[in-house]
Design a protein that fits this description.
With 428 residues, the chain is an alpha+beta fold. It has helices at residues 2-15, 20-23, 55-66, 76-91, 99-111, 139-149, 254-259, 383-386, 404-411, 415-425; strands at residues 29-30, 129-133, 156-165, 170-181, 195-199, 214-221, 227-230, 238-247, 260-268, 274-281, 291-292, 302-306, 313-323, 340-343, 348-349, 352-355, 361-367, 374-378, 391-402.
Length: 428
Amino acid sequence: MRNVKLILMLCAVLAFVAAPSVAQAQYDVYKSVPDVDKPDRNGDGIWPDPGDMSCWQAVAANLLGGAGWGLAANTPQQNADAIYKHMTANFGTANPGKTGIAINWWLYNYGYNPDRVGGWYQPDKKSNDVTVVGRTLTNMDYDFLLDELSPSRSQYVGVRWEFFNPETSESFNHCLTLIGGNYSNVHVPPGNPLQSLWHDSDRDMGNGPNPPDDDMYTNTFDANQFWHINYTPAVMNNWAQGYVTLCPGEQKPASAMENYDAAYHRDYNAAGNEIKVWRTAGANKNWGAPTWDPDGTGDYTILQIPNEEIPEMYKKVYLLVDYKDRNYDPADPTGAPDIILVDNAGITYEPDVTISTDGGQILFEWTMDDQPPWERIIFPNTDYYYLTGDIKDFNIATECIPEPATMLLISMGGIGLILRRRKKQIGT
């Protein structure tokens, strides 16, 4: 353990060798993460551009690039810069937003979209578990987030801050990417305050080491142990108001995603307001999005999945739910929410359940006896429709698989017999 800490400290010193005052500090955790910066878009030499509110997108791109998303030939920084451009082209830069929404928008429209060309589609990658915590953070939260950055955890962290200037009575929110710091419960060298290190998309902060947009802040904790940072020497009222982490999760089979994949997630409209949307992809995306409340009874716990009825085939359905916080024990799948599948004949199917290592995602898998014209997922409450409570988003994939007898006939050259049976069954 001592050797590991020594290596981490050496990495921090090498990273900031041009800033002696920083190199003397002993950082418990330091992590190499991409650093996306807002550009001078209008070319007037004033940087960053007034009204550019895209810090939340920059943090999302940092987390995705750091986790390995992007083109194989690119560096993490190049990928993060490219992902940031995808986001600003979609969301614009004038409206504030949430890092978790930006991450999932990119994953569903690029990383897990089989219709996306250009090498962005990576169906086997599992760095997709997005945890969102929205509350005033404590020193325990700070130490937890440093643990997330450690080599044993290897997670990626963004923090939302509320900055308040008592001299002007102005306040604003800003998102930063945490890359290292000292634990709050250990002693730092005499004369060195408790410090944390950040990547900031606003390079004008100017109080950090080399390069100038790697910012070093002094951490403070009030009597209630809420987490503050010293943003400038004159301004102390800066509150950490929530965090987002990106870590390994679960994934549906690529064969199912490439057949039919539907993601239900939060997005933003042109005015910057949150909306709920479906994204459908795959060879059978023409089936359209799943339908809520198919009977018109006002029951928004029922979701009907479109399908094409084909005899001699059976159906596999996958549902991957991403929860806002880590609530589930990976070793106890019986603690998962009660979600079932019902076919058009009223037959109920119970799922096989897999919980992600961090307990933030659950993969439900159903194997049906046949391939009906449709099937329905029955949720335990309407949080899945409204994306409220602990439900952040979810996605569904389906695939058809030949019955074992059908596979045997095919192997014996009996495909003609199968086709004749199908015609007879459908009355042609």
